[in-house]
Design brief:
This protein is mainly beta and 327 residues long. The protein has three helices and 16 strands. A hairpin with a 2-residue loop joins strand 12 and strand 13. This is Phosphate-selective porin.
Amino acid sequence: MKKIHFMALSLMAVGYTYAQEVPTTVTETTELLPAPAQEAPKPEPKIEVKPAGRILIDAGYFNANEQKDKFVSGVAIPDARAGLGVRYGNWKAKVDIGYAYGKLSPKDIFIEYGFSKHTLLRGGYFVHQFGMQSATSSSFKISMEEPQSNEAFFNSRLMGLMLLHQKDDFMGTLSLFAEGESMKQSSDATGDQGMGMMSRLLYRPQREEGKIFHVGLSGAFETPRYNKEAALNHSSYVLKTPFPTRIAKVTAQQATIDNATFLYKFSPELLFARGRLGLEAHYVNVNRKSGFENFKASGAYGMFRAIVKGNPYEYNEIDGGIATPRP
């Protein structure tokens, strides 16, 4: 019995040794395990530099009933610009300098970081979003000049930070800023600089080509602004709007609000477009509080627009408005 057991164990050991020595061959029926997927290396970001510039040439003939000495016919180059835009990965920067009537002036100068395709943070000297007219450059607006009601309450470019988030039906911005004079003079010349905050909120349920609708509300408050007159410096606001021409620079309306402590304003907006037809409407209200009687001002405008021939209107997600029509 012991011999039988010993022989059986010997045969098993020999069989195991043989199995180890015989190499495994791959046949047509052998299944191969798939190789682990390897992620493609991400391309290195490259610096993109894009020059930009424009020249605006204007000519006009005036036949005014009043102020004929101011409404003088002529020609002008009221805006000539040159600049650069730079992009590197999620970073973006822009420098734009303008020339008009013998003077150089800074335009957009900012740095921007995109956290995602929905959110960005911009810092520098630029137009912060407050209503539809603030979202695009003057060369992309549908009118030759901005509506007077918007011009009177508009802040133009300001030094500050703006956070923008837009996704699906919602868009919102939040800005912290210093007055525009901080870009032109040092603080020892201006005195205490005016500060403020503004925001723009949009609900935009329709953003398809040829089918656009949004409603929104902008709000802002700020402390008094710089004035070259010492008695009014940082204790007043000047609300001013010119006639819609840059050939003859004539003021249409102006109000100087003195003894002011702070100013706040709000602006509802409506945007509607179907096919090649569109409508923009805006309302602005401004209040001032101080120990004196409150000052209140308001304005509104409506603009009808149409594309005679071409593609339907499209929506610009970042600007929150109708995109520049394609050629």
